[in-house]
Amino acid sequence: MIVKDVIIIGGGSTGCGIARDLALRGVSHCLIEKNDFAAGATGACHGLLHSGGRYVVSDPAAAAECIAENRILRKIGRKCVERTDGLFIRLPGDSKKYRDAFLKSCERLGIETEVLSPTRALELVPSLNPALEEAVRVPDCSIDPFRLCMLNIVTSQARGGEILTHHEVIDIIKERGRCVGVRAREKLSSSIKEIRGKAIVNATGAWAQRIARLSGSSLPMTLSKGSLVVTNHRLSNMVINRLRPPSDGDIIVPNEAVCLAGTTSVAVDDPDNMDVTAGEVEIVAREAASMVPEFERVRLIRTYAGVRPLLHAASEDGRQISRNFQIIDHTNGLFSIIGGKLSTYRLMAEKLCDAIMKEFGLKTACATAEKPLEGQEELRGYPLSKRLESLKDIVCECELVSRSEVERVIQRINPKHIGDIQHRTRLGMGPCQGGFCTYRALGIMQETGKMPPEESMHILKEFLQRRFKGVRPALWGDQLREEQLIEYIYLGILSMESH
């Protein structure tokens, strides 16, 4: 049995941020995640560190939080954040009244803006629609959500935090009406662990209602699915937004070697409903092409979706629901946190930990805004353009991941899935989407004695099924031809048809 002061359920950005915050305050804790870090909405987001510009008109409270946290994360997370800046572009037909309200709200909230002529905007991003009428520059950034989670966990583990990934909470233990622990099942072996604590934190995002019900509680939540598409190369070195009220397909974010475009907003009842439809891909691609015409010709290599855990509201339109967050004390030892955004994860963790400290009668203040994220000195440069110093022993050509990086991860965490390596190195996140480097990584796992051959074939098949689910909605043109090549490699050369 594991005994800690606080049990954190959920390994997304908020859960990992809570673990770091508690570690810096000297509070013992155990974090439990049913998959790997950033497996939910955190890993399925734009990878956008908001300036707040997207919300200045419709949700100024959320915008104020975004710009404050943007400045903090640029300071403490240098190797997670690429300082791209962003452009909000106004196209013919877009409202000048909205533009005026946008600039006025930015000024009121202290968000730095610079109004640019079409000529200047095209100098910065030549791929923009030349018909644009003006652009507004804001301090948007690109952020790596996987690195962000891992670096928060470095602080937790360095100070005695217990981390259980691939463990699913199946029961909350209650005694005399209070939540005093959980039972978690290890997914590979099905063994059960019991973890006891004085407080339990429900930071499971879209799955928070399920965890709350295990304790006999409920939550005021609305779920909204957002779908995105990935291009095979960077179309812009700046974040591109449409200068209009938030709608489908109005953001393009450069992310390492690719660009992410989205998103949609579809109400769902099931947090596991993350299928992307062809209609959603068409909407996102069409709207993205209105900002960057090259989108009509670019190869779309993957689609994915995440489910946003929004605060409950009467509106069925997820875009009308505030991106603020809420902490709920269930008064039985369980605390839930819902809403919010990746950009505000640190603030969310701070406020939740403040509530925990109050519950324990402790007064140690939060230190996460001042201290740089630990472990950054061990990371290679971010973004990709800063990682060209060595091309030796490359396993993943798209993301320049070396054999030594893969071996280091294998030795440190003894991975059970390809995703465990992928999230820590970006292996397979580039244009080929793991089509050519996955079997190499599995080969290294076998060579190091960490993976029996029969088990690696099962993991490879599982990975390919998951990969194809994301690729399938974008199968046309060059992408279809590449997928046929990858199919030949696995079915022909590796004899996957026999497995």
Overview of this protein structure:
This protein has three domains: 2-41 and 146-221 and 322-360, FAD/NAD(P)-binding domain (3-Layer(bba) Sandwich), CATH 3.50.50.60; 49-142 and 222-305, 2-Layer Sandwich (D-Amino Acid Oxidase, Chain A, domain 2); 390-498, no CATH class. Helix content is 33%, strand content 24%. It contains 13 helices and 24 strands. It has helices spanning 13-24, 60-76, 96-109, 118-124, 145-158, 208-214, 278-291, 345-360, 403-413, 418-425, 438-447, 453-471, 477-493, and strands at 2-3, 6-9, 29-33, 48-49, 81-82, 86-90, 114-116, 134-138, 141-143, 162-165, 167-175, 178-186, 192-196, 199-202, 221-231, 239-242, 251-255, 258-262, 266-268, 300-311, 325-329, 334-339, 394-396, 401-402. Strands 6, 7, 8, 15, 16, 17, 18, 19 and 20 form a nine-stranded mixed beta sheet that branches. Strands 10-3-2-14-22-21 form a six-stranded mixed beta sheet, sandwiched between helices. Strands 1-13-12-11 form a four-stranded mixed beta sheet, with no helix packed on it. Helix 1 runs parallel beside helix 5 (145-158), helix 1 packs across helix 8 (345-360) and helix 9 (403-413) crosses helix 10 (418-425). It is globular and about 65 Å long.
